[in-house]
Amino acid sequence: MPKLNRISSSAILIYIFIIFLVTLTESHDIKKNLHIYLGTRLLSGLIALPCYFLFKKNALNPVPQILFAVSLWIYNVGGYYFKPLYLPSFTQSIFVLTFFVFMNRKLFYATVISMTLTFYFVAHHLQNNLPYNQGDFSDPDFIGVLLSSITIAGMIHHFYTAQRHVAEYAHIQFGTAGRLSARAMHDIKGSLQSPFLMSDEINTAIHSQNYQAIEKMNADLNLQFQALRNYLISFNQMTSKNDDLKNEFNALDCIDHAKFILKNRLNLILIEISGDRKIFGSQNLFTSVFINLISNSLDQFDLNDPEYKKIQIHISPSEIIYEDSVHMTPDAALDLINGYKLTTKNDGSGGMGIYFIKEALEHFQASLVMTHDKTQLTFKILFHKKWF
What we know:
Blueprint: H1 3-26, H2 34-57, H3 62-82, H4 86-100, H5 105-126, H6 139-207, H7 211-239, E1 247-250, H8 251-261, E2 270-274, E3 278-281, H9 283-304, E4 310-315, E5 319-327, H10 330-337, H11 352-361, E6 366-373, E7 376-383
Parallel strand pairs: 2-4
Antiparallel strand pairs: 1-3, 4-5, 5-7, 6-7
């Protein structure tokens, strides 16, 4: 289980234990409206319980985050009716959300401000019906405590999430570079092995003046070095993904740019494009995604030489569908979908390009899905819904 999941799920268990312990202690002192007190405690615990299981799967899921905030609000509003110490308890709950629940920054601000405003209005409405004396604690004092708590929590959350984002991004980058470096060393070693093995055959062909064999081996060597060159280009794209220039751009512009880069190989290829959508991030990186997709199709065209060479791209708000006219057997498609051929091969089977695409799309909150229908392999870029 990832560290963030453990932190949030453990916080839920501690919170449920505190509900049980405090309820057991305080219920002896409450004589009037005990059923309201116990009802709010039970409701808080029941709302928090599913959060534990949801946090174990994904601490960044906004559903348990909001449920936990609602549970904390019910716990403190119910307690405030019976004891004045639940005002500082409420401010502490804001800091619980700050440190133990890994909310998106906008969601955190929206949740905390909503919790505070509703807590204040409920507390203000109950003020004349509270069973205890508030003393000299005035309404401005009440507002001041809440505002100062929100301000401090907001500042902490701002720097805390910024630091965590940098750490997570560095972890992803180093992890990706490490995996790619291991694959690169293996594939480069394999690509360089063939020329060494062919050297004896070349020497034999030279001495026997078998020029036909020499031409064939020369063509094979060119293919080997071309595959290695393409691999190194893809590797360079992958390891230089930390492009800090991020802005909003059109997906269609990236496809057009990719077509321009590959125009020398697209003379006999029909490309049909429909739709468009806005994307935020690195335009160069997203262009590289289509360079790799189109390059994979071109490699397959060269390999299979179909009579009709066509690429279709449909762009919609939720996905981008990419198809070509290459017929692929179910076994070949299954190998590609299962990731068997995600590294460079000399047979032109996608190789590093597919791996690069999967890694690159994570920077756009998107994923690559490959499906096979009879003889057609379809690539779908799915854009995940953003929460705040």
